[in-house]
Amino acid sequence: MKKLLILGAGTAGTMMLNKFSNVLDKSEWEITIVDQFENHYYQPGFLFIPFGVYNRKDVIKPKRDFFPTGANVIMSGIDKIEPENNRVLLQNGKVLSYDYLIIATGAKIKPEETEGMKEDLWFKNIFDFYTIEGACALWDFFKRWEGGKLVINITEMPIKCPVAPLEFAFLADWYFTERGIRDKVDIHFVTPLPGAFTKPKASAILGDFLDKKNIRLTSEFNIGSVDNETKEIVSWDETRIPFDVLVTIPTNMGDECIERSEMGDELNFVPTDKHTLMANGHENIFVIGDATDLPSSKAGSVAHFQADVLLENFLAVIEGREPHEKFDGHANCFIESGFGKGILIDFNYDTEPLPGKFPLPGVGPFSLLEETKMNHYGKIMFRWMYWNSLLKGQELPIESQMSMAGKRA
């Protein structure tokens, strides 16, 4: 009996569990998944909670609802991986051996990595929206807030869902307009990037949206600390930006078990072959989703596209063949822009977001790099697809490789 071990039952790990369960012979394979938390969170929904669109119940379901029948599930934290011994040590004392390992341990915020971030003002005037606790605390704050300086700051890249901070700024503009106090709220988007987004062409277009919505942009700001007494974020070159409320996108890091295993980079992300998704230097370990160090977006759509590639390469490896499927960095992101509209971008390692129609050339129904109501509906519909199709490993009508069909160069 061969053993396949999956570490992490988030989006990527759950998808792979379902896909493997459908193709591997259960008389020959024992598949085990390990995670320490019982609840699954629809993380894209956290963005909407501070503005009262979603609440906690909309984004939380039991993880076991999405596991295949008879799945071997172990609820425990992970101590460390010992790749030289083909085994994993769990925090509950168990030791699991494996023939093949899938690392899907994800990423999480580390506000304590920035001096002064998680001190007196934390969850009083400083909030995140990348956790359920932070998003709900922001909702409680915004309901009573009567205006002032709202600063949205990205600490450093990479982060989960790179467009989410921009979406937050756009939704804040809409929310405070609806409340009738937009003229009392100064929204300031502060980023370490040279522009509004990671891709230059999309960055220019999204920067224009910031201008149109009267949202200030400060680029190339590298935060060094937070001054809790003066309510200012301070860059490494001593530039100071004042705030009344700071919405931070803190440093994102991989799981601590990766550091303990000495398998990660300085941010605990696992060095991964950008095309095959195999862990560098390990022939029987694959990495997927936010746990990788790949130069692709850390987002649910990316994990879905990676899953199809990983499955084919895994089947090749166990049959003694060379992995031939290549992940191209494909990412597909709906960007909520407020007032019932949205923007859609589709890109990969080599191709920037381009205008056009998606997924059907000339038909759509979604428009690329344009603000439309249909794109907003796509963003809202994705939650249903996530719970009912994506997590269950079902095929979606979008190829894992990015297509140029319908795009205008």
Topology:
Blueprint: E1 2-7, H1 11-23, E2 29-35, E3 39-41, H2 56-59, E4 60-62, E5 72-75, E6 78-82, E7 87-90, E8 95-97, E9 100-103, E10 107-109, E11 126-127, H3 132-144, E12 148-154, H4 164-178, E13 185-190, H5 200-212, E14 216-218, E15 223-227, E16 232-235, E17 240-242, E18 245-249, E19 252-254, H6 256-260, E20 285-287, H7 300-318, E21 331-338, E22 341-347, E23 356-360, E24 364-368, H8 373-390
Parallel strand pairs: 1-2, 1-9, 2-5, 9-20, 11-18, 12-13, 12-18, 13-14
Antiparallel strand pairs: 3-4, 6-7, 7-8, 10-19, 15-16, 16-17, 21-22, 23-24
Helix pairs in contact: 1-7
Would you give an account of this structure?
The chain is of the alpha/beta class and 409 residues long. It folds into three domains: 2-109 and 253-318, FAD/NAD(P)-binding domain; 111-252, FAD/NAD(P)-binding domain (3-Layer(bba) Sandwich), CATH 3.50.50.60; 331-390, no CATH class. Helices cover 24% and strands 26% of the residues. It has eight helices and 24 strands. Helix 1 (11-23) packs parallel to helix 7 (300-318). The longest helix is centred in the C-terminal third of the chain and has 19 residues, at 300-318. The model has no long low-confidence stretch (mean pLDDT 96).
